[in-house]
Each structure stands twice: as structure tokens, then as C-alpha cells.
């Protein structure tokens, strides 16, 4: 029986770009792939099984080995610190993490509040800056926090910058650039090295063409 490679794919924003990249790398993914609500999709001819996960959960599936490889944003990788290898920068879904807030405002002198989906990244960043802050974990619509007085600043993803502008917020500091990465479970990488290296080689070619 031929081997199957299980890939954890992030649902949402990254999904479309990731599928596009796989197609450019020569994988035949049927059109239904894009519309389906199925959470597990097997493409027998390619020896691939896709599991469609919430982006923040992709490294968890890969770390536990239920997916051999996965596609995850660098933001998620920095936040989760999972025991997986990063094989390739796919150079898709480019954005960055930044500190933002209301314009012309100072942070509270004592334990300013920082709202974020990325408590670990935010805590590490302010620790490095030598600032003591209180982190408030939110799960979405982070930009609300400074507007309604929940926090002095936010740490969040900026992509086009529209969400900040439309909510009257400004960027204060840029923390780190973010793109999507191909990640692998260390044991899978030993056992399925041929399949995985083949996929990496095919994707690398497409990525370097797209970038140059
Ligand atoms: C992300 C991020 C920002 C927004 C940035 O949120 O948290 O809110 O996108 O994009 P922009 O710079 O192009 O405006 P997402 O849409 O993932 O929703 P969320 O509110 O659930 O975090």
C-alpha cells in the first residue's frame, strides 16, 4: 500500500493562497476542494489527506503527529512554540505583528493593559522592552479594546492596515514580519522523508519563482 501524507491546512484567509501554491506545485486538487465543508479531504491519486483546522490549531495537530505536515503562520508558530520543524517559508499571507492604539496617547504608567490574541508574543516583546504590562487575552476583534477602554494598546496582525484606519487606530511599533510556513512532525520527517522532501522540493520551486 502506498503511503499517505496528512497535511493540516488552516481554514480561512491562508487557505486559498495555500491551495493555489499546491496547485502551482503540480498537485491536482479538484475544484470541490475550495467549496467543501468537509474537514477531512482525501486526494487518493496524489497520496494526500488534508485536514482542515483552525489556523491556531495547525501546529497542535502536527506536534501530535495526527498530521505529518502543516501550513501555519509564523505568528502562530511564535505564539505556540510547538515541537515541530519549520521546513520552508512559503512566502504567502504576508503581514506583520504590531503594537497599535489610539493616536497621541501614552500608555498608563502603571501596568498598562495590552489586549491581544498573542499573549506569549506580546509578553515577550514588552519584557524585552523592559516594560511591565498586564496582558488581556482576547480571541478576535482586538481593535475594539483601546476604543472602548479595555486596553492601552493592542498587539495584533496588520495586513492591509484597513482595520486600524477604519477604527481610528495607529501603529506604534512593528514587532515581527509574518508569512506562512511549512511545518513537519519530526517523526513523520524521519519515516516519510521521501514524500516530504519531494513536496518541499516542488513547493520550493514555486515559491522561488513567485518571489523573484
Ligand atoms: C485580523 C487581525 C486584524 C485584521 C488585520 O483579524 O486580527 O483585526 O485581520 O487585517 P487588515 O490589516 O487587512 O485590516 P481577522 O480578520 O483574522 O479577525 P479577528 O477579528 O477574528 O481576529
TrEMBL record:
Compartment(s): Cytoplasm
GO molecular function list: ATP phosphoribosyltransferase activity
Key word Transmembrane present: no
Chief location: cytoplasm
Keywords: Amino-acid biosynthesis, ATP-binding, Cytoplasm, Glycosyltransferase, Histidine biosynthesis, Nucleotide-binding, Transferase
EC supergroup of this enzyme: transferase
One family name in Pfam for this protein: HisG
Associated pathway: Amino-acid biosynthesis; L-histidine biosynthesis; L-histidine from 5-phospho-alpha-D-ribose 1-diphosphate: step 1/9
Record-listed E.C. numbers: 2.4.2.17
Xref: PROSITE patterns: ATP_P_PHORIBOSYLTR
Catalytic activity, as annotated: 1-(5-phospho-beta-D-ribosyl)-ATP + diphosphate = 5-phospho-alpha-D-ribose 1-diphosphate + ATP
Residue ranges annotated for the ATP phosphoribosyltransferase catalytic domain, each copy included: 54-204
Keyword Secreted applies: no
Xref: HAMAP family: HisG_Short
Family as reported in the entry's similarity comment: Belongs to the ATP phosphoribosyltransferase family. Short subfamily.
Function field: Catalyzes the condensation of ATP and 5-phosphoribose 1-diphosphate to form N'-(5'-phosphoribosyl)-ATP (PR-ATP). Has a crucial role in the pathway because the rate of histidine biosynthesis seems to be controlled primarily by regulation of HisG enzymatic activity.
Subunit structure: Heteromultimer composed of HisG and HisZ subunits.
UniProt cross-references to NCBIfam families, sorted A to Z: hisG
Protein name in UniProt: ATP phosphoribosyltransferase
Gene that this sequence comes from: hisG
Amino acid at each position: 500500500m502506498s503511503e499517505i501524507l496528512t497535511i493540516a491546512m488552516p481554514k480561512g484567509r491562508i487557505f486559498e493562497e495555500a491551495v493555489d501554491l499546491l496547485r502551482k506545485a503540480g498537485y491536482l486538487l479538484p475544484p470541490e476542494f475550495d467549496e467543501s465543508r468537509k474537514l477531512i479531504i482525501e486526494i487518493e491519486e496524489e497520496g494526500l489527506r488534508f485536514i482542515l483546522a483552525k489556523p491556531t490549531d495547525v501546529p497542535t495537530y502536527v506536534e501530535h503527529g495526527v498530521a505529518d505536515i502543516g501550513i501555519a503562520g509564523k505568528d502562530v508558530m511564535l505564539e505556540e512554540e510547538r515541537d515541530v520543524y519549520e521546513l520552508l517559508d512559503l512566502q504567502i499571507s504576508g503581514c506583520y505583528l504590531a503594537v497599535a492604539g489610539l493616536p497621541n496617547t501614552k500608555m498608563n504608567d502603571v501596568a498598562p493593559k495590552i489586549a491581544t490574541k498573542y499573549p506569549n508574543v506580546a509578553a515577550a516583546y514588552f519584557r524585552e522592552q523592559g516594560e511591565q504590562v498586564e496582558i488581556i487575552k482576547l480571541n478576535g476583534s482586538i481593535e475594539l479594546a483601546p476604543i472602548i477602554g479595555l486596553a492601552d494598546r493592542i498587539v495584533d496582525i496588520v495586513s492591509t492596515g484597513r482595520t486600524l484606519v477604519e477604527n481610528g487606530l495607529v501603529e506604534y511599533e512593528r514587532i515581527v514580519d509574518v508569512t506562512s510556513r511549512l511545518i513537519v512532525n519530526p517523526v513523520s520527517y524521519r519515516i516519510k522523508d521521501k514524500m516530504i522532501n519531494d513536496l518541499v522540493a516542488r513547493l520550493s520551486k514555486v515559491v522561488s519563482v513567485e518571489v523573484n
